[in-house]
Design a protein that fits this description.
Helices cover about 60% and strands about 0% of the residues. By secondary structure, the protein is an all-alpha fold. The protein is built from six helices and no strands.
Length: about 70
């Protein structure tokens, strides 16, 4: 089990690939790493990482919807 930040740092290009998969910008991906993955992306992140980043690991960070993040 790994947290998202650790998983992304283990291989060059992972952050860019995950951002593309989620349909978000690289800067938004960076915000998710530090501020929590929005609820609507939790399953996609787990699946993209082949379960290496678990839902439990993702839920240890704050979880926001895209609307909540826009108002933060």
């Amino acid at each position: 089990m790994s947290d998202l930040k650790t998983w992304l740092s283990q291989e060059r290009g992972r952050s860019k690939a995950l951002a593309a998969r989620l349909g978000v910008s690289k800067s938004r991906m960076s915000q998710m790493v530090s501020g929590g993955v929005p609820r609507e992306h939790l399953i996609a992140v787990r699946d993209f990482t082949n379960g290496e980043v678990t839902l439990e690991a993702l839920l240890t960070q704050p979880v926001h919807t895209q609307q909540e993040a826009a108002h933060a």
